[in-house]
Amino acid sequence: xxxxxxxxxxxxxxxxxxxxxxxxxxxxxxxxxxxxxxxxxxxxxxxxxxxxxxxxxxxxxxxxxxxxxxxxxxxxxxxxxxxxxxxxxxxxxxxxxxxxxxxxxxxxxxxxxxxxxxxxxxxxxxxxxxxxxxxxxxxxxxxxxxxxxxxxxxxxxxxxxxxxxxxxxxxxxxxxxxxxxxxxxxxxxxxxxxxxxxxxx
Length: 201
Fold this sequence. Notes:
The chain is of the alpha/beta class. The protein has 7 helices and 7 strands, in the order αααβββαβαβαβαβ.
């Protein structure tokens, strides 16, 4: 970057540019917005980022992001222990929770199998899922990976890994758009996909 731009400005632009979906122009706009904004805007953002890194962790059971371990869902006596919905990301969990109809447990894989991106089964929380199911309380595993090649590959792998456990393995109904992400699906479509889930054969 030009030497006419002070180093703190350059560093923040580069920092924003590393975020997904943020290009150089957007990164520059965000940086210059913060320069012009009231001090508390920047300071609140800095404090929020510090809290994010210092106060959050993964739940030791479902691997959702949480402040307390176990997370509120895993520690709730109102949640059914018999079913586990397996999702790729915490945002997918939030999308299902917004429907208000699912009252079971979750398991967050933190990604999907993608050989192109160098993500294999060992990079995901799959072994932890198998161990959870083998403990014997689970009767149904709902595979709620995103529709598309990576989500389908992950679903097939999970089906093979869980086959010996004897649990019922279902997948969300295909009212979901192929290639779409759960986090962007409206609640009604997602609710129907949950209700219409079918057994994986």
